[in-house]
Design a protein that fits this description.
Alpha-Beta Plaits, alpha+beta, 243 residues, ten-stranded antiparallel beta sheet, heme
């Protein structure tokens, strides 16, 4: 079987959708971005849909970690634009991030951490599609973390893994206001999975993460840091956030 034959085909129920996260850190000391700088940034944001890219959100991560100020979440999916120059793959997200970082408002910011992921068919729940691909609107808070399974995980019998993930899924399903956006990042970064979780109430993110610790699947975790959590903000709010 060739690589192309073994790949999971894209269907309406299993769309391919790349996504990119970037954590930006500003210089110290700094001053608030000017109105013209924010206007330039807004224009760059407004141009993204024509390139087949969606800005899911900008997030204020001030104080959540000492090494971060702003989180950027971009995504794209084939068929979302008819623009002839819209590649709508990972290269379009790279170009979009560069366009935002070249604006006066963000030019002096360093990229502290970044990772790209893509939706692939889930291990056992074939119906799982990330919220950003199934039309869920962005929520007020985002909790993002990378994830690496134990070395033994992928060698365990399929029925054992399926049972553990089913238990994990049942616990998570109780938090109906939390939107899961799990994507694969095998080979795209140092990790295996990216887990972006959205909610309008950060307490629900805290409670869900705590509850999910009490599952058998927790025994097969090798790495799940760094965590980045922030409040979704619009460009106009950056005058205060980035000051």
């Amino acid at each position: 079987m060739t690589t192309a034959e073994s790949a999971t085909p894209e269907t309406a129920e299993n769309p391919v959708g790349y996504t990119l996260f970037a954590i930006l850190t500003g210089p110290r000391p700094r001053t608030a971005p000017s109105a013209s700088a924010l206007g330039e940034l807004q224009s760059a944001v407004d141009a993204l849909p024509g390139q087949g890219v969606t800005l899911r959100g900008l997030y204020d991560v001030t104080g959540m970690r000492g090494d971060a100020d702003l989180m950027v979440w971009l995504h794209c999916a084939p068929g979302t634009t008819s623009a002839p120059d819209a590649a709508q793959g990972p290269e379009s997200l790279q170009k979009a991030l560069r366009s935002l970082r070249r604006t006066a408002a963000l030019a002096a910011f360093a990229c502290e951490w970044s990772a790209m992921g893509v939706h692939r068919e889930a291990e056992f729940n074939k119906r799982h599609v990330p919220g950003y691909l199934r039309g869920e609107h962005a929520r007020g808070w985002l909790c993002l973390y990378p994830f690496v399974r134990s070395y033994e995980w992928y060698l365990l019998p399929a029925d054992e893994r399926s049972a553990m993930l089913a238990e994990h899924g049942r616990k998570g399903a109780r938090f109906t206001d939390v939107v899961a956006n799990t994507v694969s990042t095998f080979g795209l970064s140092d990790y295996e999975w990216l887990l972006p979780l959205e909610s309008d109430d950060p307490i629900h993110l805290v409670d869900m993460m705590r509850d999910l610790r009490a599952t058998d699947a927790r025994r097969h975790v090798r790495e799940e840091v760094p965590f980045y959590t922030g409040r979704r903000v619009d460009v106009a709010e950056l005058e205060e956030v980035l000051a």
